[in-house]
UniProtKB/TrEMBL annotation:
Protein name: Amino acid ABC transporter ATP-binding protein
Family in the record: Belongs to the ABC transporter superfamily.
Superkingdom to which the source organism belongs: Bacteria
PROSITE patterns in UniProt: ABC_TRANSPORTER_1, ABC_TRANSPORTER_2
UniProt KW keywords: ATP-binding, Nucleotide-binding, Transport
GO molecular function: ABC-type amino acid transporter activity; ATP binding; ATP hydrolysis activity
Chain coiled-coil ranges: none
UniProt xrefs under SMART domains: AAA (SM00382)
Domain ABC transporter: 2-237
Length: 241
């Protein structure tokens, strides 16, 4: 579904955030990315939907080269939902409005249809009674669950998560991971940057270790955690588990 070829990103000032990433993410696959801070995880994720423009290399989405000149980027971005560490909800809009805005504006879908879908999604994450509340009235865990269903309201083909639980109080992490686990069970294609190793073990089809802007090691979760090959990954895992 997504293939990156020699993906490189150099930020102004000469910092090499991505040093040639070659990856293939299959339809329905759950890929978890771990690695130290500053290793390029966010840059990689943001490159996949061209929030960062790569300096070099290619990104193919369903065969289309997103780095090509004639690509309708807005259309492609709509096919990928993104959830950030800080929920990025619009503070002055109700939850329902937060969810229905983009499907109505960008996808030109009728209000009734979108609202119906939004309510079904809210039901699924147990927040239907909060449809008319404002983000400030919700807990962090609730806001993040809303951010996830807001992305789902666009019917994306891929979901990208950048440390979705890192800003949450510990007691709220579980409720967000539960929603993500359910999505995985429904075979959503997912790329998840996280420090939640339990989630990685349980849900990932493949775990990637990034350091210095490259994928240094990748494997199925059991092999990844039980038999890390490089000393670098062994050291990293010993520090976080
Ligand atoms: P991670 O998500 O793994 O912590 P990032 O992808 O955020 O790492 O960052 C990789 C490197 O790129 C870091 O050294 C970071 O400081 C740098 N970087 C990220 N975004 C920018 C930017 N907009 N401008 C300049 N440097 C950046
Ligand atoms: Mg990051």
């Amino acid at each position: 579904m997504i293939r990156t070829e020699n993906l490189k990103k150099v930020f102004p000032g000469g910092l090499h955030a991505l040093n040639g990433v070659n990856q293939e993410i299959r339809k329905g696959e759950v890929v978890v990315i771990v690695g130290p801070s500053g290793s390029g995880k966010s840059t990689f994720l943001r490159s996949l939907n061209l929030l960062e423009v790569p300096t070099e290399g290619h990104i193919y989405f369903d065969g289309t080269d997103l780095t090509g000149k004639k690509v309708d980027l807005d259309k492609h971005r709509q096919r990928m939902g993104m959830v950030f560490q800080h929920f990025n909800l619009f503070p002055h809009m109700t939850i329902l409005k937060n969810m229905t805005l983009a499907p109505m504006k960008l996808q030109k879908r009728p209000k009734e249809e979108v609202e119906k879908q939004a309510m079904e999604l809210l039901q699924r994450v147990g927040l239907a009674d909060r449809a008319n509340a404002y983000p400030s009235q919700l807990s962090g865990g609730q806001k993040q669950r809303i951010a996830i269903v807001r992305a789902l309201c666009m019917n994306p083909e891929v979901m990208l998560f950048d440390e979705p639980t890192s800003a949450l109080d510990p007691e709220m992490v579980g409720e967000v991971l539960t929603v993500m686990k359910e999505l995985a069970k429904e075979h959503m294609t997912m790329v998840v940057v996280t420090h939640e190793m339990g989630f990685a073990r349980e849900v990932a089809d493949r775990v990637l270790f990034m350091a210095d802007g490259q994928v240094q090691e990748e494997n199925d979760p059991e092999t990844f955690f039980e038999h890390p090959k490089s000393e670098r990954l062994q050291t990293f895992l010993s520090k976080i588990i």
